Amino acid sequence: MNSIPISATRPSTSIRVAQVVGLTASAYLAGSIGSISWQSVPALMDAPAPLLAKQWKKIFDQGKVAAPPMAVISAAIFGGLAYREPVGSSNFNLYTAAALLVPSIVPYTVFLMSTVNSKLQEKASSLASASLTDTAVESGAAEGETAHELLEKWATLNLGRSLLPLIGTLAAGWAIVDKFEVLGLGASLKLGADRMG
């Protein structure tokens, strides 16, 4: 059997910096989006509707400022890394997938979340003058249209959105570790009977 080389040419410092920045930005983006659904939303669900709506709006406004630029930065870096690879190679395909997946949070938000986003923004606006502790302010709301019910829908969609940069991060990470160096020794891994010498 043949040996499998486990060393590769060391990438330049600029490539390594790009890889680290791209991975960090996309991983942070996936984590920050996902953490809202599994950490922030459960806390918001304990709040009365006026407070819930106000806090959700703050989270939403901060997210729409921070998330798109991070997605664009990651996509640009992964696109640049793909450009350096031979077309059709596995690393080209992985970097390209990452460059497409990470910024796809924007169309996902526009096409899948805009309705619930609009309804929650309307709630935040209509409940802005209500007492933050008023638990009965939505007593006449239609089924499925309370702030709490809308937030549940939003959290599920948001969790789905977090998977896009997560999968993009994993794809780029795989492309990065596909080429690696072991202590600069040029070692090789022997398989089968060859491993015995």
TrEMBL record:
<keyword id="KW-0472">Membrane</keyword>
<dbReference type="GO" id="GO:0016020">
    <property type="term" value="C:membrane"/>
</dbReference>
<feature type="transmembrane region" description="Helical">
    <location>
        <begin position="65"/>
        <end position="83"/>
    </location>
</feature>
<dbReference type="Pfam" id="PF08592">
    <property type="entry name" value="Anthrone_oxy"/>
</dbReference>
<keyword id="KW-0812">Transmembrane</keyword>
<keyword id="KW-1133">Transmembrane helix</keyword>
<dbReference type="InterPro" id="IPR013901">
    <property type="entry name" value="Anthrone_oxy"/>
</dbReference>
<feature type="transmembrane region" description="Helical">
    <location>
        <begin position="95"/>
        <end position="116"/>
    </location>
</feature>
<comment type="similarity">
    <text>Belongs to the anthrone oxygenase family.</text>
</comment>
<protein>
    <submittedName>
        <fullName>DUF1772-domain-containing protein</fullName>
    </submittedName>
</protein>
